[in-house]
């Protein structure tokens, strides 16, 4: 039992360390490519404050810290199920989302580098 708990703590710590430096480590130019290409973000999100299929992304880096954005972009459904304060706030952007068991956000698997690049791009967009 102790080994199992220690293993889980180690994994959680590694994830926090991995997500902590996303914006500073990312390349905004590459992140724009992820936004428009592999990540398929532009299909549902606009870079201004106008909602589309998903919420507008202007100001997203002020609404959510980099660690949370990293978790969200790496696994939206797992983050949704965690129902933390950021998720609860996100659920209010569109009527009825607060009762949804699943997030509507579908994202192809991104590498840690692609997530970091995407976060850097979102920071650049918010300037």
Report the biggest beta sheet as strand number plus sense, adding barrel if it closes.
Answer: none
Distance between the termini: 48 Å
> Which H/E pattern describes the elements?
HHHHHHHH
Please give the number of β-strands: 0
Main structural class: mainly alpha
CATH class category name:
Mainly Alpha
Radius of gyration (Å): 15 Å
Average pLDDT score: 87
Number of separate structural domains: 1
Fourth-level CATH superfamily:
Cytochrome c-like domain
Low-pLDDT runs: 6-23
- At the third CATH level, what is the topology name? Cytochrome Bc1 Complex, Chain D, domain 2
- Total helical segments: 8
Silhouette: globular
Give the secondary structure arrangement, pairings included.
Blueprint: H1 2-20, H2 22-25, H3 28-36, H4 60-63, H5 66-74, H6 76-82, H7 85-90, H8 112-125
Describe the overall structure:
- It is a single chain.
- The longest helix has 19 residues, at 2-20.
- The relative contact order is 0.22.
- It is built from 8 helices and no strands.
- It is globular and about 35 Å long.
- It has helices spanning 2-20, 22-25, 28-36, 60-63, 66-74, 76-82, 85-90, 112-125.
- It has one domain: Cytochrome Bc1 Complex, Chain D, domain 2.
- It is 57% helix and 0% strand.
- The protein has 127 residues and is mainly α.
- Residues 6-23 have low confidence and may be disordered.
């Amino acid at each position: 039992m102790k080994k199992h708990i220690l293993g889980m703590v180690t994994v959680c710590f590694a994830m926090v360390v991995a997500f902590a430096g996303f914006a500073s480590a990312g390349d905004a130019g590459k992140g724009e490519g992820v936004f428009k290409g592999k990540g398929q973000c532009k299909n549902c999100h606009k870079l201004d404050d106008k909602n589309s299929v998903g919420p507008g992304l202007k100001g997203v880096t002020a609404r959510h810290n980099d660690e949370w954005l990293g978790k969200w972009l790496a696994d939206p459904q797992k983050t949704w199920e965690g129902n933390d304060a950021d998720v609860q706030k996100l659920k209010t952007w569109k009527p009825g989302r607060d009762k949804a068991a699943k997030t509507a956000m579908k994202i192809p698997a991104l590498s840690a580098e692609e997530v970091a690049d995407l976060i850097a791009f979102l920071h650049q967009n918010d300037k």
